[in-house]
Every structure is written in C-alpha cells, then in structure tokens.
Amino acid sequence: MSGRTIGRTVGALLLLAFVAYGGGNALVESGPGTAGALSGVLDHQLRISAGALLMLVNSVAVAGIGVLVLPVLKPRHEISAYAYLVGRAVEAVMLAVGVVLLLLVVPLAREQADGGAPAAVLEALGQVAKEGNRYSYQIAMIALGISGVLFCRVLLRDRLVPAFMALWGLAGYAVFLIGAIAEVLGYGIGVALSVPGGLFEVALGVLLIVRGFPAGPGLDRDGSAGDVSPALR
Predict the structure, then answer these.
(1) What Pfam families does the entry give (predicted)?
(2) Would residue 57 count as lying in a domain?
(3) 162 lies in a domain?
(4) What pTM was estimated for this model as a whole?
C-alpha cells in the first residue's frame, strides 16, 4: 500500500472516528433524563443502544489508525511508531470498556422497573456505571495525548505534513493530555482543553484525504518497501 493510500485511509478513519463517537455520544446523552442515573433509560433504550454501537465503531476506527500508521512511522522512528500503535490500542480498548459500562444502565433500569432490588441500590450502581464510563474515556484520552505528541513529533521532524499542522498537533495533544489528567484528578476542564486537539484531528483527516502521506523511507510511491533501517533518533 502506497503512502498516499495509507494517508487517505487514515484521514477517512480520523473523520469516521470523530463522527462516530460524537454522534453516538449525542444519541446517548439525548436519551435519559437527569432525575437519576436510571431515569428514562428504558424509554430511550433503542437510542442508547444505537449510540453505544456508534461509539464502538469509533474504537474500531481508532485501532485501524494505529495499525495503518505503523509502516509510515516505523522506518523514521521505531519507538514512536510502536508507542503510537500501543496508545491507539489502549484508547480503543478503554473506550470500548466505557461503552460496555454505559450499556449496563439498561439491565439495571429494567431491574428497577421490575422491582427486583432496592431502587436506591440500583440507582447507585447506575451512577457507578456512568462514572466508570467517564473514567474509561479519560484514561483513553491520556493514552491518545501521549501517543499523539510522539506522532506529531515525527510528522514535524520528517515533514510528513506542513510544519504548522505538526506544531498545531503537538500543542493540541499536549493540552489535551493536561485536560484529561485534570479530569481524572477532579477538575472539570477537559472539554475546553480538548478543542484544539479535536480540531487538529479533523483538519489532519481532511489534509490526509486530499494528499496522503508522502513517499519516503519504507514507503515508495508504488507501495513497495524501501531498504532503510529504522531510525531511533
């Protein structure tokens, strides 16, 4: 696969991941009411389930990005290449775990409706499931922030994208990482600090769809492997 084809595929997956998770999360959040963790869940079960499935599509896309970028980064900086792959894998897994936790509110709400357990206990379990989803998301974002900084470092050093784009990504992922860590520590600033990194991923996705990755070490224009040893700089 040529660098251009890989780049265009990665760009499409970046946009797919953004739309899938954002759309899925919007569906989930538009469902239940705010009176309690389980309030309104059964009335919006289809919407919640559909949103959760969209969020799982994001996990598949995220994992695919890590796999596809590996042959592009590996000849240039092997450590960063594998770190990015691992970071994207951790992100995909933790987001999927969060979705499973989110879906647990459905059987809990059904149990509450059937009167099979004390309502207060079920509400508490529902709240724990929602908090578990939130923490899983933030851990996933920490992994993305760390691996994203390494990714953009290679983009900048090897001129895989225009320098201003790579610098935007470096700053965006760094701020993103700070925001995710702050959320885990109890400071609700993650959403605001995620904006630069989120916009960078959308812009990078569009850029890669238009131009792909340039040919270079390990990736010739026809997709054949170049005879270049991995850089460990």
Answers:
(1) DUF4386
(2) yes
(3) yes
(4) 0.87
